[in-house]
Design brief:
about 130 residues, alpha+beta, Alpha-Beta Plaits
Length: about 130
Amino acid sequence: MKFMLMMQCTRADFASLSAWSAADFKAHIEFMLGFAKHLTATGELVLAEGLDAPQAARIVRAQKGPPTVTDGPFAESKEFLAGFWIVDCESRERAIEIAAQASAAPGPGGGPMGIPIELRQVMCAPDV
């Protein structure tokens, strides 16, 4: 079963990264790299990526003529997608365990951040 684990972030959380010490930021990145390495070793990692800052996002809508491109995500959004993992594991329970590990990434002072991780199963298209 494939699942997408989506790491949520708020604009305030993202802005606070500039106040982190170099050691705290390094520990966080090392955790994320080690987490990906562990999931690769277990054969569960399909793909993992961090995403650019929300101010670099664009919303594209197809229509007659050229597509409309606007800034995104929406200005009223408080949260945004900061990164994601796609894992292939035996059950939803295992995917929840993996999401909990990601949520516990260290923040300032080394304590677990409790990052919100949205978990959704990746669905397959029906046979036609």
